[in-house]
Amino acid sequence: MTAATHSEGKHLGPAQYVMVWAALMVLTGVTLAVWKMEFSYAARVGIALGVALVKSALVAIFFMHLWEERGVARLVLVVSGLMVTLLIGFTLLDNATRFPYANPPYSESWKDEPWQKDAPPMQAEPPPIRTAPKSQAEHPAGHKP
Predict the structure, then answer these.
(1) What is the rounded distance in angstroms from the CA atom of residue 114 to the CA atom of residue 117?
(2) Which of 92, 66, 68 is nearest to 79 (CA)?
(3) Contact 34, 48 (CB under 8 A)
(4) 14-23, 63-72, 115-124, range with the lowest pLDDT
(5) CA quadruple 133, 135, 136, 140: dihedral sign
């Protein structure tokens, strides 16, 4: 790379990378420990997403060398992070506000949340099945049903 596109500042040493790796391992343990605790499903997902956000920031800042960059590279990181946050947020909001029958079967744990709408009662009997009348080709010649 040319000097205009890459700063030749002091890079981090191996000790800093090992510390970041240790922090990533601790945060992975935190995620696992929180998932095994008796929190509500929504709380566990929220905490796991928060820890994942911190871990991704550590990777981007130190392993992608954004700590040493200035200007546009940091702006791209911030805008990308905001877009991911919006997309995940809108996905969670969509699932939280759906009609209960539209939720997939594996999302049963959401039904006890106070913001989830109750399902209306089902019909006692399903509607009758309508069949098409038989065509002339299905009957022998001269015989009428």
Answers:
(1) 8
(2) 66
(3) yes
(4) 115-124
(5) negative
* CB-based contacts of 66, cutoff 8 Å, min separation 6: 60, 73, 74, 77
Q: Which residues contact 6 (CB under 8 A, 6 or more apart)?
A: none
Domain boundaries, the chain: 14-112
Concatenate the DSSP letters of all residues of 88-138 into one string.
Answer: HHHHHHHHHTS-GGGS-GGGGGGGGSTTSPPPPPPPSSPPPPP-PPPPGGG
pLDDT digits (tens, 9 = 90+) for 67-80: 777 788 778 878 98
Nearest to 1 by CA among 79, 73, 75: 73
- Cα–Cα distance between 124 and 16 in angstroms, integer? 66
